[in-house]
Design a protein that fits this description.
alpha/beta; single chain; 5 strands; about 280 residues; five-stranded mixed beta sheet
């Protein structure tokens, strides 16, 4: 599960930090060394920074780009860049080339909830020259849904996606939660993969608790089909399963719950069937 914790625990840390008091005065500039980045949370683009774009901005820092402030958010412990990662990297590049102690123009969001700050990251980046894709915007909104705060309308406005999209995301989240999928895994897997998991279109590595939860979910679905008669006639039920899928009865017998349910007599019958099959093969 270690691969499914980086973005999630970064979010947890930021949520905790955000409980601290905000600065009394909203700054217009900040020293470069006071600005920090959390790319797992606020870098919406999957490919990260474009080196060519950073170089282009760095060459214009004495002119056209001086009036473009970075959007920064107060986490409770420090200022974090939520939009303007390329400009921030350009300032760092200039500083490393002897630019001295730089003061960076900023627009501060010091009293903004985390999910709203994430929404800013998506909407503001979408206006930049290196635009975000629809998939990246959806992943940003999915993270907000997984964080579980705010109304559908608020999450829609913050994430820059429709309210119906947020509703669908909430349904997928509820399905995966019933299957005991950890929030960390949902966040780090992203929206597209989680949607496929909820629809059963791709295989997911499930914990024993998740498998048990899925079994109970399937049992509830079977109860809704009113299969009482089938349960009273196991031979007919077994044949119905065979009609549905010729391989299903064999795969059920090989499953751990069915094997555990077999008593000594049942296992002896299976052994006899195996012996008969071997005898037939040897006769040929």
């Amino acid at each position: 599960m270690a691969q499914y914790c980086s973005a999630f625990y970064t979010l947890c840390f930021i949520c905790f930090a955000g409980q601290c008091a905000a600065p009394h005065k909203s700054p217009c500039t900040l020293p470069l060394n006071t600005l920090h980045t959390e790319p797992l949370v606020f870098q919406v683009r999957r490919d990260g920074l474009c080196a060519g774009r950073v170089d282009e901005i760095a060459r214009g820092l004495d002119g056209s780009n001086l009036d473009e402030p970075l959007h920064v958010w107060w986490s409770g412990l420090r200022w974090i860049v939520i939009e303007g990662h390329h400009r921030h990297a350009a300032y760092l590049q200039r500083a490393s080339n002897g630019g001295g102690d730089l003061q960076v123009p900023v627009i501060a969001h010091e009293n903004t909830p985390l999910e709203t700050a994430k929404g800013f990251a998506g909407r503001l980046n979408d206006r930049a020259k290196v635009r975000i894709s629809q998939a990246e915007r959806l992943d940003n909104a999915w993270q907000m849904v997984c964080m579980g705060s705010g109304s559908i309308k608020a999450q829609s406005n913050a994430g820059g996606v429709t309210e119906s999209t947020i509703s669908n995301m909430r349904k997928v989240k509820a399905t995966l939660e019933r299957r005991r999928t950890p929030t960390a895994q949902m966040i780090d897997a992203g929206w597209a993969r989680c949607r496929e998991w909820s629809n059963g279109k791709t295989r997911q590595d499930h914990s024993p608790d998740a498998l048990e939860a899925m079994a109970h979910e399937m049992a509830d679905e079977l109860r809704g089909l009113n299969i009482t008669t089938a349960l009273k006639s196991p031979d007919i039920f077994a044949r119905a399963l065979e009609i549905l899928s010729p391989e299903l009865p064999r795969r059920l017998i090989e499953s751990e719950p069915f094997w555990d349910a077999l008593d000594d007599t049942g296992r002896s019958l299976l052994a006899e069937k195996d012996a008969e099959a071997r005898d037939i093969i040897e006769d040929f």
